Amino acid sequence: EEPPLLEQPSGDVAAPTTKKVQEGLELIRAQKFADAEKVLAEATQEAPKDPQAAFYYGVALEGVEKWAEAEAAYDRALELEPKLTEASQNLSALLLESDKIDKAITVVDAGLKITPEDPGLLGNRALALDAKGSPDAIPAYQRVLAKKPDDAWLRYNYATALAVNGKTAEAGQELAKVPVDDPQLAAQVAQLYG
Known about the structure:
The chain is mostly helical. The chain is 70% helix and 0% strand. Helix 2 runs antiparallel to helix 3. It is elongated.
């Protein structure tokens, strides 16, 4: 099983390394983020070179909305283990939410050098390029949607990027593919159609 917030495990690297890390992971799964934060803070003190302790500490910190501390924990996890795809995914998503677009692109690109076809990183790259207003966002969306064709929000964002770039016919075709069973998404699709 993988913890919440992760797109895919990166194999052996994703296995909890110590009893405290395992305990923290179980608390995260139970959504007891404050308790997980305490346990994983201890784990990072006891094993400062353990990338899993740093990574799961970042997940717990995100759960209690300590964004800057979570960013630092993910940075530390990647410093210790650059192949930790989950840390690249979570850190780049956190950076996107914090409007640190250039750093998000740097993190994503470093992660894609290791796992070039990772859908989570490809999605974050498309979103980051879109946030910058880059024309490279359109092919980036096409690439990730080839991997995740059923991701309704990515498809909506792709349609938006097409519309912003004057490709209204293509945008309409992409909007027609978006399932609208989510009321928030349905409202966004209707607004974009308008």
